């Protein structure tokens, strides 16, 4: 019953469904702490979407398949998060990621090969980087992979 544990979520993520939904489940490795003040000793195995902690950075737990739009779990935390929230079973999420990848292909190509569109491309990249566009994880993941493939950055 901590305010920091309450956060907005879509009804699909928060509602228990046959295939996905968190509701009031809170999976942890090991056992749950039942003594007030010991909650910090729990090791959650789902990502906290509003956390600024390094261990909740989605890049550590997921990659994106640029051909299918699926999230590929890299860790147990990524696997459990994807399953609980149905991140690969809801078609609109997968198609949204694919649309973001398509947009990234176009935007990064313009950035590199069309100097007249450079400023527009940079503004679009910044909007995704700041999270002002939907599916920014897929967009930025593709951009990083693309720039690395061209030898412009090293990850």
Please describe what this structure looks like:
This protein has 155 residues and is mainly alpha-helical. The protein has six helices and four strands. A two-stranded antiparallel ribbon has the order 1-2. Strands 3-4 form a two-stranded antiparallel sheet. Strand 3 (62-64) and strand 4 (71-73) form a beta hairpin. Helix 4 (91-113) runs antiparallel to helix 5 (118-129). The chain starts with 10 loop residues before the first helix and ends in a 6-residue tail after the last helix.
Keywords:
155 residues, mainly alpha, two-stranded antiparallel sheet, two-stranded antiparallel ribbon, 43% helix
The sequence of SSEs as H and E is HEEHEEHHHH
Nearest-angstrom radius of gyration? 18 Å
Round the mean pLDDT to the nearest integer and report it.
88
Q: Distance N terminus to C terminus?
A: 40 Å
What overall geometry do the principal axes of the alpha carbons give?
A: elongated
Can you list the strand order of the major beta sheet? 1-2
- Strand tally: 4
Judged by helices, strands and strand pairing, the structural class is mainly alpha
**How many helix segments?**
6
Multimer state: single chain
Show unreliable segments.
none
Bin the helical content. Answer: 40-55%
Largest sheet: 2 strands, antiparallel
Work out the strand percent. 5-15%
């Amino acid at each position: 019953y901590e305010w920091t544990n309450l956060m907005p979520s879509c009804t699909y993520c928060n509602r228990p469904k046959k295939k996905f939904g968190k509701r009031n489940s809170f999976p942890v490795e090991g056992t749950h702490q039942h003594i007030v003040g010991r909650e910090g000793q729990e090791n959650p195995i789902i990502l906290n979407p509003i956390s600024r902690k390094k261990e909740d950075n989605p890049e550590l737990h997921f990659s994106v398949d640029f051909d299918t739009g699926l999230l590929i779990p890299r860790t147990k935390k990524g696997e459990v998060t994807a399953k609980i929230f149905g991140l690969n079973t809801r078609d609109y999420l997968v198609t949204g990621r694919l649309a973001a990848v398509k947009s990234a292909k176009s935007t990064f190509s313009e950035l590199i090969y069309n100097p007249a569109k450079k400023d527009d491309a940079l503004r679009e990249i910044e909007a995704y980087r700041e999270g002002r566009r939907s599916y920014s994880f897929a967009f930025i993941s593709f951009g990083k992979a693309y720039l690395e493939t061209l030898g412009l950055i090293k990850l």
